[in-house]
Amino acid sequence: MSLRQMEYLVEVVERESFTRAAEALHVTQSALSHQIKALEREVGGPLLERMTRGVRLTVMGRAYFPHAELAVRSARQARRAALAAGGAHSGELHIATVHAQAIGVLPEVCARWAREHPGVRLVLHEYATTEELAEQMARGVADMALGPPPRDWPGPVTAVGEERMVLVVPHGDPLAARESVRLAELADRPWVRCSLEPVVGGRRWLDLECERAGFTPRTAVRTQHSSTAVRMAAAGVGVLLTAAHELRGLDCASVPTDPPWRRDITVFSRVRLTGAAAEFTTYLRAAGDSGGAGN
Questions:
Q1: CA–CA dist 244, 104 (Å, integer)
Q2: Cβ atoms 18, 12 nearer than 8 A
Q3: Which of 94, 133, 99, 134 is nearest to 230 (CA)?
Q4: Cα–Cα nearest to 35, from 15, 63, 8
Q5: Cα 154 to Cα 92: distance, rounded to the nearest angstrom
Q6: Residue 125: exposed, middle, or buried by beta-carbon count in 10 A (0-12, 13-18, 19+)?
Q7: CA dihedral in degrees (164, 166, 168, 172; nearest 10)?
């Protein structure tokens, strides 16, 4: 079996269509079908079930696909790494991250990169949770990942900064004029909760902290995205705990917690970073050192 055949399989599965996959690969549909059938003969059984509308993996295909996907992505990553070994001058850099980092930490860093390295195109892969981010990185989706420290990660992990967590309220809220607020003071307040909240030991971080403060937070609304949660808190729906950098450009008040809460931000990868990836990491670290990750 060849890497090209695996690439064809991955393309068909991702696009759920032989026609769309052939177009993306710039081959004829008959050539694509021939290569998939050849792969199935070598594997020893059908990998795809051809349906009236689209295709799906068979039982054998579901067992085979993750390994083929990793091989294809690793090959692409190896090619990008080889091209970048001489310096960050051309090609692509694939960066995986969670939504909060994509809208908070990355814009200014990406803008600087675009000015100083116009020949290297950035490709962002955004995920909803840190667990999904780590899972996709393990499958080789990107060259590097930006996010909170992953649990039990086997590859390199580099600290590049930290997030400063703050409470979000409307400008007219009594808390808005405070220099800081203890969590115990918020026992009677409704909360805006987000599905992207940090998880520690299988439990939501806010639940753990509120428990230590002697109460269970009362949820007014739960959102899927942190950007939605910020706007809900700014409108007065409830108090929100979020990273300070997510409030840039928004009309709301932020109040530090007492004691201060901070969360580490890291870059992690499957292999040692070189070339463009290593250079981009220095940009992230510089932004963290200047306070970019926490303001």
A1: 9
A2: yes
A3: 99
A4: 8
A5: 24
A6: middle
A7: -120
Cross-strand bridge partners of residue 159: 266
**What radius of gyration do the chain's Cα atoms show?**
23
Per the DSSP assignment, residues forming a β-bridge with 126 are 97
CB 174 within 8 A of CB 224: no
- b or e along 214-231 (b: 16 or more beta carbons within 10 Å of the residue's beta carbon)? eeebeebbebeebbebbb
Cα–Cα dist 115/118, whole Å: 6
Question: CB–CB of 130/151 below 8 Å?
Answer: no
Question: Helices 18-25 and 3-15: crossing angle, nearest 10°?
Answer: 130
Six-digit token string for 187? 């026992």
Q: What is the pLDDT along the chain (295 residues), one digit of tens a residue?
A: 788 888 889 989 988 888 888 888 888 888 888 889 989 888 888 999 888 778 889 998 899 998 888 888 888 777 776 665 555 455 789 999 987 777 778 888 999 999 998 888 899 998 877 888 998 898 888 999 998 888 889 999 999 988 888 999 999 999 999 999 999 999 999 999 988 777 666 788 889 889 999 999 999 999 988 888 999 999 999 999 988 877 877 789 999 999 888 888 899 998 888 888 899 999 999 987 655 544 4
